[in-house]
Every structure is written in structure tokens, then in C-alpha cells.
Sequence to fold (206 residues):
Amino acid sequence: MTSTPRGSWEEAQKAELGWWVAAIAAKYPSREEFARARLSEGTIRLGAHFGVPSIGGRLLDVGCSPVSVHEGREEVEVVAIDPLLDAFCENVPNFARKGRVANVEYRCCRIQDVQDDPFDVVWCVNVLDHTDDWQDIIQHFGRLAKDLLLVGVDVRHGELDSPCHISIITERELLGAIEGAGFVVEWHTPIHEEIDRYYFCVRAYK
Fold:
């Protein structure tokens, strides 16, 4: 791996918290509306981005934000984790929750702390470039995914453009790390190395 973090994870987390607090205040008058929007976002991503019209079983949502995009998706039982969850509960208490909500169990932790039996699906979207240890996180995907891995991230060949993002990840680095964690990549977004930044999705199986 050649990528090195371009900033502090702690500072990036502060920026991430501020971004979510502002976004929720500007767009969503209630948790119910926010949860509906998040569920719709997740459904669109499943079909349009990953080519997976439906999922079932147990799902691990890595970096779930204040509300998981799978809350209300009745066909899956979800463990949703985010190291900012305590801060979300403090700063947007009418939106963020810990513990059980509908089909989701919310936990404030990092993936390294998850000791559950393997999940049918591991979902990690818009997270890895916000971290300073994304290669290690992918190794934990290998430990925790029983079947399907869905990863979406902005890949970059240029500079970082937000204080929330601290790792530049290329397509080839990401694919190599996923395969190195024991997955077979079934499909991914076509590679466009001439583009400075674009959204890259990977669907992989054990």
C-alpha cells in the first residue's frame, strides 16, 4: 500500500460531526423524515450503485452516521456502528440513538471492537477515506463478512478537498486490499484513472 494519511483522524471526526449537525439542521425537521430519506438513499445505492436489488440476513453497517441507511429495511437485521455515535447523540439527540431502533442495533465503536459472529453482509459506504487505517479496516471485513461485501468510496488521483477526508485511496489499492482480505471481487465500477475524483463501488464475495 502506498497511501498515507494526510491529516489527523481526530480532526477529521470533528469535521464530520460538524457536517452532519449542519446538514440535519438544514434539511430535516424530524427524525422520521431523516430516517425515510436515509432508507431511500440506501435502497438507491443497493440497486443503482451495487447491482444488488435486495439483501437479507444479518448486516454490519460500518460508519452508519446518525441513522443507518438500512433502518426500516425489514429483510435484514442490522448492527450499525460509528465511533461518533456518542457525539451524535449529544449534538443531535432527537435524531441519533444508541441501542435498538426497529431492525437496527446502534453501537458507538470502531470495527476493531466488533466481536460478533460473521455477518451475511458487510456494508461500508463513504467511510474509508475518512479514516487513517483503512487497510486495517478492510482486514476486519475479512474477519466479519460471511458472504457479501459492499464498499463505496471516493477514489482520488488528485488532492483532498474536505477536512473530513484524510486518506487518498486509488482503485487498485482498494481492490488489492479487498482481495488480500480473502474476498473475490465480482464487480466494480469501471476504472477512470484520468479523473481526479469519482465514486467507486465494489461488490465482493467470500
Q: What stands out?
A: Residues 9-205 form a domain with the Rossmann fold fold (CATH 3.40.50.150). The chain has a mean pLDDT of 95. The chain is about 30% helix and 25% strand. The longest strand covers residues 145-156.
